[in-house]
Design goal:
Blueprint lengths: L2 H16 L20 E2 L7 E2 L6 E5 L1 H4 L8 H4 L6 E4 L9 E4 L10 E2 L2 E4 L2 E2 L6 E2 L9 E8 L12 E7 L7 E9 L3 E11 L8 E14 L8 E14 L2 E15 L7 H6 L6 H5 L5 E13 L6 E16 L2 E22 L2 E23 L20 E25 L3 E18 L11 E19 L2 E12 L3 H5 L15 E14 L3 E20 L7 E22 L2 E16 L1 E2 L2 E2 L11 E11 L2 E10 L2 E2 L7 E2 L2 E10 L6 E10 L7 E4 L9 E3 L4 E13 L4
Parallel strand pairs: 7-11
Antiparallel strand pairs: 1-2, 3-10, 4-5, 6-9, 7-8, 10-11, 12-13, 12-39, 13-14, 14-15, 15-16, 16-17, 17-18, 18-19, 19-20, 20-21, 21-22, 22-23, 23-24, 24-25, 25-26, 26-27, 27-28, 28-31, 29-30, 31-32, 32-35, 33-34, 35-36, 36-39, 37-38
Length: 713
C-alpha cells in the first residue's frame, strides 16, 4: 500500500470531517458509560441475566463496543469472546471456520459442531452443517454465545451456540441508513430501512419493520478470488390480541465466488496472494442461491412465555472442484415449540421449561466429471463426451434426506439470593436416508439409511456470592453426528452411506465466574475439562485432489481456561480475552500410525485478543490486536502454521442518535503487513495446508442516515 494512497485517503477524510455539523457535549458521549448486568435469550428461555445461569455466556453489541466495523465476517462480530476461534479463510467460496472450544475446528467448508441461529431461527441444518454465507450481518444488532456442551439443549452438533439478533426497528415511522466501504479489492454497499408503527392501529400494535439490502463485489485479496453477492433481509413485527408475531424473509444470490485454494509453506512465504494453480485450471468456484421465510409467534412474558416458529428454505449450489463438479438442490423446513411455567416447590421458586424441535433437509445431489482442463480439440472420451464443455459425464445422482427431532426439558429451583440449581435433559434422533438415482451397468444400487440418537443430560449450579458476582459449575454431555457430506465421502471412493463413522460424544465439567465490579469493570472466566469419544477427524483423500473423507479418533481430552475483562469509562472502553486450549488425542491410530498424545489440529494452544476505543466529542479511535500460537495442521503433528500477531486501527465519527447521520471511517488492517496463515487445511495433501491472512489493507467507509419524521423529537 503506497504512502500516496494513505495521504489521499487521509486528506479526503479530514476534508469530510471539516464539513460535519457540530455536536453538543452531551450527545458526544455515545456508547456505554456504565456497565449493567447482561441479559441473554440464547438459553432457550425468557431473557435472563448471565449471573443466574450455570453456563459460559457472552453477549456483544458490535456498534457499541467496536464502532466502525465493516460487518464483512462473523470474526468481526465475535471479537473478544474467549474460547471462540474464527479462522478467516479469505476465500469467497469458503465460509470462515468457526470453532468453540475446538468444536468445529475440523470443518472443511461451512460451520460444523456449532449451532448458529438468527432471531431464534436455526441456520444449522439437522445434520449439523451450517452455511453462513447467506446470513445478513448489516442488520445484526447483537450476538449471544454459549460456549461448550452446556449448549446441548439445542441438540445435535451443539458444542456451542452463536445466536445473532437483529437490531431493533427505529422508534420513528421511517428511518434510512446507507453504508459503503472500499477495501481496495473488495467493495460493499448496503441500505437499511426500518420503522415502528403506532398503537393507534386497532388490529396491530407494537408494530415494526426492518429491510436490509447489501451488495458486495471485487477481485478479492488473492489471485483468483473474485466475488459477487447480493442479499436482502426483511422482518416485520406486530402484536395482535396479546400474541406477538414476526415474519422474516431472506434472499441471497452469489453467482461468483472463485476458490483460490490453500498454499504450501514455500508459496505462503514467497507471495501470500498466490492461488493453487490446479484450482485455476479446474475453474474451482461456487455459485449459490438461497431463500428462506419464517414466522414466529409468542404469548405471555418471562418464565410463562409460550412460543412457536415455522421456517422453510431452499438452496441451489453449483460447485466445480478439482475432483468433480458438485451440484445440490436443497429444500429444508422445520419448526419448534417452547413453553415455560413458574411456581413454587417447598416454598422456593421453581421454573420449568420444555420444548420440541423438528427439522428436515432434502438434497438432490449431482456429481459430474470436471472437464475444465479438456480443450476443444481433445478427443472425445466417456469421461468428457463433449469437447470444450466443462460439465462432463454424470458420476453420481442421489437424493439425501435428513430428519432431526429433539425434545428437551429443564427444571430450575432457586434458594433466593443464594443458590440456583438446574437439571436438563435433551433427547435427539437424527435419521439419514439415501436414494441412489444413478443405477446403470456395473453401478449398483447404493441406497441405504442410518439412524443415530442420544440423550444429553446437564446439571448446573449457580452461587450468587454477591448481587453482581456469581460462581457456577456444570456437568454436561453432547453428541454430534457426521454431516451427510461426511457420511457419503468415503475414503475408498465407495458410494452410499458410510456405516462405520460413528457420532462424536463429549462430556464436560466446567467451573466459572461472572462478575461486575463497580460500574465500569466486567469479568468472565471459566476452566473446563472435556473428554470426547469417537472425535470426528477429516483428511484429504490421497490421489483425489480436493475430496475430503472422515474417520473417528478413539478418545480426546480437552482442558481449557478462558478469561475476559471489559472496562468502560467516560473516555471509551477497552477489553482483553485470553484462551488456553490444551487439546490432545488420548487414543487414536490410523493404519500403522499412532497419534496418541498429539495436539488436536486446527486449534492454537494460546489465543488472545485485545481492543481499546477512545472517544472524544463524537469521534472515536479504535485499535484491535489478535495473536495466536502455532497451530498443528495434521494428526501427526509434523506440520505447523507459525504463531502470528496482527494489529488493526480505525478512526471515525461514532454512531449517534441524530436525525441526520454522517459518519466516515478510515482504517488499516494488518498495520505491520505480517505474512501469516489465518487458517489451515487439516491433513491436507500436496503440502497445501495454509490459507493466508490478509496483508496490510487500507479501507474507507461512509455511513449516512436520516429519520425525516420522528414524533418523539
Amino acid at each position: 500500500m503506497s504512502n500516496s494512497v494513505i495521504r489521499r485517503a487521509g486528506a479526503a477524510f479530514l476534508a469530510l470531517a471539516g464539513h460535519l455539523p457540530a455536536q453538543s457535549r452531551d450527545s458526544s458521549r455515545v456508547g456505554p458509560q456504565t456497565l449493567r448486568p447482561v441479559s441473554v435469550s440464547v438459553t432457550r428461555d425468557a431473557a435472563r441475566s448471565v449471573l443466574e445461569l450455570p453456563f459460559a455466556l457472552a453477549r456483544i453489541t458490535p456498534d457499541s463496543l467496536h464502532p466502525g466495523q465493516r460487518r464483512s465476517s462473523l470474526g468481526e462480530l465475535l471479537l473478544g469472546i474467549p474460547g471462540v476461534q474464527v479462522q478467516e479463510r479469505n476465500n469467497p467460496s469458503q465460509d470462515p471456520r468457526l470453532a468453540i472450544r475446538g468444536f468445529g475446528a475440523r470443518s472443511a467448508f461451512g460451520v460444523r459442531g456449532v449451532r448458529v441461529l438468527r432471531d431464534g431461527i436455526p441456520l444449522t441444518l439437522p445434520d449439523g452443517q451450517t452455511p453462513v454465507d447467506w446470513m445478513d450481518l448489516e442488520s445484526a444488532g447483537s450476538v449471544e454465545v454459549i460456549r461448550g456442551t452446556a449448549a446441548a439443549l439445542y441438540g445435535n452438533a451443539a458444542g456451542g451456540v452463536v445466536s445473532v439478533r437483529s437490531r431493533p426497528a427505529a422508534a420513528a415511522p421511517f428511518a434510512i441508513n446507507a453504508r459503503a466501504w472500499d477495501g481496495g479489492n473488495v467493495q460493499r454497499a448496503s441500505v437499511l430501512l426500518s420503522g415502528s408503527g403506532s398503537d393507534a392501529w386497532t388490529a396491530l400494535r407494537e408494530s415494526g419493520y426492518l429491510v436490509s439490502g447489501t451488495r458486495t463485489e471485487g477481485t478479492g485479496p488473492r489471485e483468483y478470488s473474485r466475488q459477487q453477492t447480493t442479499s436482502v433481509f426483511a422482518r416485520a413485527l406486530g402484536t395482535i390480541k396479546d400474541t406477538r408475531l414476526e415474519v422474516q424473509g431472506v434472499r441471497y444470490d452469489a453467482p461468483t465466488g472463485e476458490n483460490p485454494g490453500a498454499l504450501t509453506a514455500a508459496e505462503l512465504s514467497r507471495n501470500p496472494r498466490l492461488s493453487d494453480s490446479l484450482n485455476i485450471t479446474k475453474h474451482s468456484r461456487k455459485a449459490v442461491e438461497q431463500s428462506q421465510v419464517a414466522i414466529l409467534a409468542s404469548r405471555g412474558r418471562g418464565a410463562s412465555e409460550f412460543s412457536a416458529s415455522l421456517f422453510m428454505g431452499s438452496r441451489t449450489l453449483d460447485n466445480p472442484l478439482p475432483f468433480a463438479i458438485v451440484g445440490i438442490e436443497r429444500t429444508s423446513y422445520g419448526g419448534s415449540l417452547r413453553g415455560g411455567a413458574q411456581t413454587t416447590l417447598g416454598g422456593l421458586p421453581f421454573r420449568l421449561t420444555a420444548g420440541l424441535d423438528a427439522q428436515t433437509q432434502q438434497d438432490e445431489r449431482f456429481n459430474y466429471e470436471n472437464c475444465s482442463d479438456v480443450t476443444r480439440t481433445a478427443p472425445v472420451t466417456t469421461r468428457c463426451p463433449t469437447s470444450g464443455q466443462e460439465r462432463g459425464a454424470v458420476r453420481l445422482h442421489q437424493r439425501e434426506e435428513i430428519q432431526g427431532e429433539g425434545a428437551y426439558v429443564r427444571y430450575e429451583l432457586e434458594v433466593p439470593r443464594k443458590l440456583l440449581g438446574s437439571v436438563s435433559l435433551r433427547y435427539d434422533r437424527v435419521r439419514f436416508r439415501l436414494v441412489d438415482r444413478f443405477i446403470a451397468g456395473t453401478n449398483g444400487d447404493d441406497s441405504g439409511d442410518r439412524g443415530l440418537h442420544a440423550a444429553s443430560p446437564m446439571f448446573g449450579l449457580v452461587w450468587r456470592v454477591r448481587p453482581l458476582v456469581s460462581l457456577y459449575t456444570n456437568v454436561a454431555s453432547a453428541f454430534e453426528t457426521p454431516t451427510i457430506t461426511e457420511l457419503t465421502n468415503q475414503p475408498d471412493g465407495k458410494l452410499g452411506l458410510n456405516q462405520e463413522v460413528a457420532p462424536q460424544r463429549t462430556r464436560t465439567v466446567e467451573v466459572g465466574m461472572q462478575a461486575l465490579f463497580g460500574a465500569h469493570l466486567r469479568f468472565d472466566g471459566a476452566v473446563f475439562h472435556a473428554s470426547a469419544r469417537d472425535e470426528l477427524v477429516g483428511f484429504d483423500v490421497p490421489g483425489a485432489v480436493g475430496r475430503r473423507a472422515f474417520r473417528n479418533a478413539g478418545r480426546t481430552r480437552r482442558d481449557g481456561l478462558e478469561a475476559n475483562l471489559n472496562v468502560v469509562a467516560t473516555w471509551g472502553e477497552a477489553g482483553a480475552a485470553y484462551t488456553l486450549s490444551r487439546f490432545n488425542f488420548v487414543t487414536y491410530s490410523a493404519g500403522s500410525a499412532n497419534f496418541a498424545g498429539n495436539p488436536i489440529p486446527g486449534v492454537p494452544k494460546h489465543q488472545a485478543q485485545a481492543y481499546a476505543t477512545l472517544r472524544l466529542r463524537g469521534w472515536f479511535l479504535t485499535s484491535e490486536a489478535s495473536t495466536a500460537s502455532r497451530v498443528s495442521a495434521n494428526d501427526a503433528a509434523s506440520v505447523f502454521a507459525p504463531s502470528w500477531t496482527t494489529l488493526g486501527v480505525r478512526a471515525g465519527r461514532a454512531p449517534s442518535d441524530h436525525r441526520f447521520l454522517l459518519e466516515p471511517t478510515i482504517g488499516i488492517d494488518n498495520v505491520f503487513n505480517r505474512t501469516f496463515a489465518s487458517a489451515v487445511v487439516i491433513n491436507a495433501t500436496r503440502g497445501r495446508y495454509f490459507e493466508p491472512g490478509v496483508g496490510q489493507r487500507l479501507f474507507v467507509a461512509l455511513r449516512v442516515g436520516a429519520t425525516p419524521w420522528n414524533p418523539a423529537r
